[in-house]
Amino acid sequence: MQRTLGTCYYPEHWPEETWAEDAARMADLGLTWVRIGEFAWSRLEPSPGNLQFDWLERAIDVLHDAGLKVVLGTPTATPPRWMLNKHPDMLAVDAQGNPRKFGSRRHYCFSHDGYRAEAVRITRLLAERFGRKVEAWQTDNEYGCHDTIYSYSDPARAAFRDWLAQKYQSTEALNRAWGNIFWSMDYDSFDDIDLPNLTVTEPNPAHALDFRRFSSDQVARFNEAQVATIRQHSDAPISHNYMGRIVEFDHFATGRQMEIATWDSYPLGFLEDRLEASPEHKRRYARQGDPDFQAFHHDLYRAVGRGRWWVMEQQPGPVNWAPHNPAPLPGMVRFWTWEAFAHGAECVAYFRWRQAPFAQEQYHAGLLRPDSAEAEGFAEAARVAAELKQMPDVEHTQAPVALVFDYASAWGWSVQPQGAGCDYFRLVFEVYRGLRKLGLSVDIIPPDTETLAGYALVLAPGALTLSEPLLKAISETSAQVILGPRTNAKTEHLSTPVPLPPAIEGLDVTISRVETLRPDMPIPAEGGGAVKLWFEQLDSTEQMIEETEDGAAILVGARNLFYLAGWPDPTLLQRILAQRAEAAGLAPQVLPQDIRIRDTGNTRFVFNHGPEPVTFNGQTIPPAGVIWT
Amino acid sequence: MQRTLGTCYYPEHWPEETWAEDAARMADLGLTWVRIGEFAWSRLEPSPGNLQFDWLERAIDVLHDAGLKVVLGTPTATPPRWMLNKHPDMLAVDAQGNPRKFGSRRHYCFSHDGYRAEAVRITRLLAERFGRKVEAWQTDNEYGCHDTIYSYSDPARAAFRDWLAQKYQSTEALNRAWGNIFWSMDYDSFDDIDLPNLTVTEPNPAHALDFRRFSSDQVARFNEAQVATIRQHSDAPISHNYMGRIVEFDHFATGRQMEIATWDSYPLGFLEDRLEASPEHKRRYARQGDPDFQAFHHDLYRAVGRGRWWVMEQQPGPVNWAPHNPAPLPGMVRFWTWEAFAHGAECVAYFRWRQAPFAQEQYHAGLLRPDSAEAEGFAEAARVAAELKQMPDVEHTQAPVALVFDYASAWGWSVQPQGAGCDYFRLVFEVYRGLRKLGLSVDIIPPDTETLAGYALVLAPGALTLSEPLLKAISETSAQVILGPRTNAKTEHLSTPVPLPPAIEGLDVTISRVETLRPDMPIPAEGGGAVKLWFEQLDSTEQMIEETEDGAAILVGARNLFYLAGWPDPTLLQRILAQRAEAAGLAPQVLPQDIRIRDTGNTRFVFNHGPEPVTFNGQTIPPAGVIWT
Amino acid sequence: MQRTLGTCYYPEHWPEETWAEDAARMADLGLTWVRIGEFAWSRLEPSPGNLQFDWLERAIDVLHDAGLKVVLGTPTATPPRWMLNKHPDMLAVDAQGNPRKFGSRRHYCFSHDGYRAEAVRITRLLAERFGRKVEAWQTDNEYGCHDTIYSYSDPARAAFRDWLAQKYQSTEALNRAWGNIFWSMDYDSFDDIDLPNLTVTEPNPAHALDFRRFSSDQVARFNEAQVATIRQHSDAPISHNYMGRIVEFDHFATGRQMEIATWDSYPLGFLEDRLEASPEHKRRYARQGDPDFQAFHHDLYRAVGRGRWWVMEQQPGPVNWAPHNPAPLPGMVRFWTWEAFAHGAECVAYFRWRQAPFAQEQYHAGLLRPDSAEAEGFAEAARVAAELKQMPDVEHTQAPVALVFDYASAWGWSVQPQGAGCDYFRLVFEVYRGLRKLGLSVDIIPPDTETLAGYALVLAPGALTLSEPLLKAISETSAQVILGPRTNAKTEHLSTPVPLPPAIEGLDVTISRVETLRPDMPIPAEGGGAVKLWFEQLDSTEQMIEETEDGAAILVGARNLFYLAGWPDPTLLQRILAQRAEAAGLAPQVLPQDIRIRDTGNTRFVFNHGPEPVTFNGQTIPPAGVIWT
Ligand SMILES: [Zn+2]
Ligand SMILES: [Zn+2]
Ligand SMILES: [Zn+2]
User: Fold this and answer.
1) Which residue range or ranges hold the Glycoside hydrolase family 42 N-terminal domain (chains A, B, C) (predicted)?
2) pLDDT tens digits for C205-236?
3) Would you say A508 and A540 are in contact if contact means Cβ atoms under 8 Å apart?
4) Tens of pLDDT along B554-590?
């Protein structure tokens, strides 16, 4: 399959007379795909039942006439105002008990049956009309953006009770599973169970975790309803555009429902608003984005899409929504595009064709300025389009390293962090960054992975409850495996298993005590570096590979199975990963701070993420520069 | 008109036997004016309709008998508790949906018709009784203090819908003006439009801006109702006492309704609680107040009062309401008084005569201690009274520099800052400070100014939408004019005009891109200094006056019209302002950091705002010192 | 009375088969006391009226059979879920108006009559059944934990109105006492008075203070109802387990109702979450706890219990609820136990016997791990048990220094701090720390103390309203007495007395002005050190003992009575305290930073709180080391 480019287009924002010229310019630029429709419900159905699909058909025709392919989005992230008159209680409710009102987007509760039926209805109507016409589909838009997974509404409460009743069958079973005896929290009836907000102090973590599982299931159910509807009328592949660092629902669950995973990549916005990093780091990468954040998501969505994935929205210039919104370094739009292709993207689509001069995102760049002049990203996209002609098709290669990512663990850590700063995504991402700084390419794998065949090095930091298939795969692999910290430390109800964790066959390790550390009191490791934030005291007869200056175990194990008792700082992490990678027969190399490498198929890409030129392996790579061989 | 002093007095706090002695001491001190009554509703009308005005008449008589003049305040900022029994829904509602309860002050919603009628009623009764008796009026007290302009109540919602219906006439027009198509936010009925709080993510900026315009109009309407009522029974001038850095309503709009503008000047409290400044700056000026903050407001309220303005409440010692409440440096009470007179004040009234030993402001100093002994400010006021005898009357002189201040722009920046720290008041105030540090006196002018005659230098930083009259005045002036950043960047609906901004006749400049900057990544200017926070990329054929080290335009223009593409730091600002001031024929001089100058009439005042003596032009000025010539 | 050890045990968490072994291990370890039952309501009464006390009787029997004594807790901190079906409005309401929901603990409003009756009912049933069987009682659990004293519920509002009506008898009296004239806040009816939350700006401080007095009274009333009920059926001593730095209710008031005061001592959690200290201090003591925080509470609860006090919950390892939860230094569990005994504890009970693997406190250590293996604290407790055999019984000695602690003053400072950081507990605690750093042992005394006989040095910093008995005791004592800052500065209604404070007989001092200071602008004292945060300007003819570099009075007085005009920093405080201690005939010595001394009976204990060994008086004390002679 050929690597392609695309863009997001809102014909409803512009006079119909200008569509054809827009389409012609898109085609000239070398774009293949155009995503449309995902916010257009008020024009598709201005009043209940008053369907106005003709303009959309004309827009599709114009695009097709220019040789472009169309991704049609279902408009369910933006129900029109009249929907609230039909379903006044469809709004999500925040944790403080306030309805989250109409006036922007994503103003619905996933648990509202009436709204879900409306979403299916408009999806069905669109699929009936355009199912044979468009080349791909997108469901809704950015599930979870603006903290929209958790709703504390009446419909959510009722649905949660049903969900619990189906899961536990009896309150006795639920009381036992949650340990409700602890503070006399036992329930006699599922109808007595409330949502876990506004409790006097923290709710039972099992209660909180089940609410998160339920909320994730509600998203999957909502999405599946649309997918099933589209399938009845269309053979085109279906996708959803995920958003960066949204971990409140299980993307693997929705991913399994669809052919393609896509995500919306805003490197500069993400650096500012959702990355733990020092001010120095944020300043250094303010115009390039973090060197690993996009790559992590590329690898994550390759897993979510089981190989097939796109960037559906690629930042093309400054955005409008982060605390600070600088312009990218010249060349970064091309750079980001190539980075996605290096990680296996089939398509990179720029958000958006033309900057709109009104409403919420006026200062969010497009490929065109509001006056239709070319913005800076335009020429960079054109350069990629030209370069693509020389490149092979999308290549799939298994990476040598596998890193488990488990959404339920993110919820578990969030419910029960035990210390400020103890966050699952952060832990996994730091390990990912450590691997990348050694020049390694990584596959992110789901927690129910059944085989580790082909991998030389496998890590599952912080995965709270290892699944049976993964435990079996670990026991069977000859790869170097590093578990911990906190791996397999919990039952599915977020209780502590007895015998104590990690209880891994072939590894004589028992966690006898957990402590969390002030950021200013890391525990130095004997060989340099330190453990920070999270540290476990081990009872173990395994060989001590790394220890603290006081002689406490940090890394123990033998043969190919190792347990890591704490959260390593970058220095310690590098040493551990390099040793294991070498033991695994890989050739780790410590890269310059701004350089990252990605191998795919027969191509090795080398990226300079820094603001200055870097000489690497004899070649000087300019800022925003990428070379491939 | 003579410069006078005054004080704020609460006869209802003290035994009637003591009034005469208080009045005698006030007269002895050299005071002319006494403001009374503005919080006394519960004594004027202890129960509905039970009017008790006699005590107030006696108090006025006592003051008159001592030769004092009276400003009578309408007591509408403190409706008594029984009012809530009549109008249970009169309370404002905060953005979270909670009523803002009785128990302090300003507990009313400007949109509540019933309460507005009550306010008019008590105003009418007071005006009927005292209209020919008192020498001046004050409406209400400190509109906007304690964040009281925005209310999310049911009456506010209903009034907002009416306001929108009157403004737009049809929802089609409103949808178009707001760009509601953007996220399917279109409305079919004005009754479907809600207030813009509690939306899932940011509301449409046009929606938010209209709510702010509406809220400002509600204040003007509330005030006008009182003013019109007083006018029917009194020829005395009417005023309102504005509060520092309240920009949530348009003071020019209320200012036009009344003869005099007054404001409440609390230099130390303001430094602590409403000024962006470094800790070092706050520490240096902790006992003196910021060197420019009071001056800015003096100049602002001179404009709001069309020349006639007072300080109605002057800090006389420590206050009680800021995060920290230190005592002023000895001499500062005199200093602040003279500063106000230097900027043209007709009267400076001290808040308050005697420190009250009970209720909310017990630790707020007065001229007297609670035990009636003289507090420290007393002697300083006496010194001013003595000095005033040697001084000419209030002098009015047009300043050589005009600086536009536009409340609607403050709302626009607040609704759509595009980056943390990007605030309109802050921008204008920094420019004002820059001008003052060059020894220049400044007139603040409203955004609908029709002529710039008499000015040598004109600035309108951040004024989002230049009015037709001002655009005309700019095109006609021969003054040096600096526009930008963000000047004329928006339509009145906060959308981006196409052709792109600033679209100023005679200036070939187009803003092709906007970016906002982390505080730690200023962009260095070629000649020193830097652009911070906000930076625009220009397409321009104009001469480049200032540029970044990378060659991007910072200041362009020719003849007398210039565009500034970013937010200058103090170094860059000083260079730009000094150059333009010189080109304008002014004689800018870089003052020592603590020195400020103000020219009025034939008098030049020189103030030392620092904690140490400063030698300036051969004269040594002590801390808290002012000299005039 | 012998010093004893104990533990907190939850038989309801564990299979009944294991109880006997647990009891045997407890006895073997050398424990005397076991606290049980305080969270077990849902097992004692699974549905309304369905009493299941047999298991508890069997658990008590098992413990008794092993030779252990039992403290039985009333389970009223954790009413079961069915209670809400009977009393839907029993939940407390937070200051934002949201009910604080079921799902954790302490989910009740102290003002709900129905719930109080239920609490009395279950208490009566337990007392009837076990009144002659158990050796001691505990009421409820940790009143005030999780901010549970203040409730803004409808029952609280109604009860507050009643309380005010009983206190003031007429609204005229209330209006006068509160100074409601200030902003027309007068009331015509007690039914018009609301709770002081959600006011537009700060409520009248008198209103706020009365709400705090009322809330404290509600706790006392709730507790007294249980105490009176138990007394009818039991002669065993009654206690309550207070929590660290909870000042929202008057512990002396509840303390007077019971025989024993106990508190829950979590040194590491408290250091992290409720102590003002620099990051360096927190890091240094992260594994030991603050050197004075526990001691302060030991001395406080000795006063609350009129000599009889315990640690009911002693931290035995890492906890789970602070921002960071490190493990204690080896030896600290023993160290903390001895520290309590040094201050006169009768018993130290470890929380908890066995770490529970489920629900909210999974990562909170016990003496046993969840798998019943010994955790680290186990051996340390065993060592204390062995050491105890060599020690004399609990010794009571009056300390040479008395320090007044007054809960109402804590409320007054909180309602009216006048400056950020001005907190009563913090002030008193800093003075306490200063005394301890001079090697002095301290008695904390209540504000209604009637005699100071036996004390050489007495301090009452920040005690806002000195009681008649204490004033008399001060006038009669020959001890060195230091009053101020802010001592006797307020009436009981939090107004300022006229004549002005402090109005102490025999001390010619008048506070003419109060100022609060930025943390970065301390006022240097002539002899070194400085005044910080709070500073009073004095009119005084007394001798000046300490003054600022500018000559303003800091400490004045003569003979044995002194007034301190500001909040001293540690250097100034040390000088003042050392001088007065010497004048009092004590022998203050400046201790090394980590060393603290406590004298009791004939024993002197010396503690090293630091992470390194310290040589003191020729002896080297290791980290976590204590020596006694
Ligand atoms: Zn997006
Ligand atoms: Zn005021
Ligand atoms: Zn506890």
Assistant:
1) 8-391
2) 999 999 999 999 999 999 999 999 999 999 99
3) yes
4) 999 989 999 999 999 999 999 999 999 999 999 999 9
- Contact between C244 and C274 under an 8 Å Cβ cutoff? The reply is yes
Q: Find the residue in A nearest to C92 (Cα).
A: A200
pLDDT class of A388 with cuts at 50, 70, 90: very high
Element (H, E) at A445: strand A442-445
% of chain B beyond a pLDDT of 90: 99
**C13/A182 Cβ within 8 A:** yes
Per-residue pLDDT band at B476 (split at 50, 70, 90): very high
Strands (E), B548-588: 553-558, 561-564, 566-568
CA distances from B112 to B97, B109, B118, B153, B221 (A): 16, 6, 10, 9, 11
DSSP code per residue over B41-102: HHHH-SBTTB---HHHHHHHHHHHHTT-EEEEEP-TTS--HHHHHH-TT-S-B-TTS-B-BS
SS3 C401: strand
Tokens of A158: 């009722």
Three state DSSP letters for A34-92: EEECCCCHHHHCCECCECCCHHHHHHHHHHHHCCCEEEEECCCCCCCCHHHHHCCCCCC
Sketch out chain B's domains with CATH numbers: 4-149+218-388 (3.20.20.80), 155-207 (no CATH), 401-583 (3.40.50.880), 595-628 (no CATH)
pLDDT-based confidence at residue C558 (cuts at 50, 70, 90)? confident
Residues 507-566 of B with CB under 8 A from A: 512-518, 520-521, 537
Distance of alpha carbon C452 from alpha carbon C179, whole angstroms: 35
Distance (angstroms) between ligand 1 centre and the Cα of A77 equals: 11
| Alpha helix stretches (DSSP H) within A306-449 | 332-342, 376-388, 407-415, 424-437
Work out the burial of residue B122: count CB atoms within 10 Å of its CB; fewer than 13 is exposed, 13-18 middle, 19 or more buried: buried
Residues 30-59 in C contacting A (C-alpha not used; CB under 8 Å): 39-43, 46-47
The Cα of C195 is separated from the nearest Cα of chain B by a number of Å equal to 9
Q: Under the phi-then-psi rule, with left for phi > 0, alpha for psi from -120 to 50, and beta for the rest, what region is C29?
A: alpha
Q: How many CA atoms lie less than 13 Å away from C267 in the CB half-sphere? A: 31
User: Bridge-partner residues for A267, per DSSP?
Assistant: none
A255 band by pLDDT with thresholds 50, 70 and 90: very high
What residue type is assigned to position C21 of the chain?
E
Please report, as a single letter, which amino acid is at residue B509.
Answer: V
* Mutant choice from B324, B329, B368, B374 vs C, greatest count of C C-beta within 10 A: B324
* pLDDT at position C395: 82
Question: Which residue does chain A place closest to C271, by CA atoms?
Answer: A518
Residue tagged 């890394």 (tokens):
A555
Q: Is C166 exposed, middle or buried (0-12, 13-18, 19+ CB in 10 A)?
A: exposed
Tell me what ipTM this predicted complex has.
Answer: 0.97
- Tell how strand C530-540 and strand C509-516 pair up: antiparallel
Ligand nearest to the CA of C265: 3
C-alpha closest to that of C292 among C594, C575, C624, C627: C594
How many whole angstroms separate alpha carbon A247 and alpha carbon A391?
34
The two tokens of residue C549 are 């570099």
Chain C hits for A204, Cβ within 8 Å = 103-104, 359-360
Is B164 touching A (CB cutoff 8 A)? no
Instruction: Give burial (CB, 10 Å; 0-12/13-18/19+) of B330.
Output: middle
C537·B327 Cβ contact <8 A: yes
Question: Where residue C494 falls among pLDDT bands split at 50, 70, 90?
Answer: very high
How far apart CA C597 and CA C606 sit, in angstroms, is 5
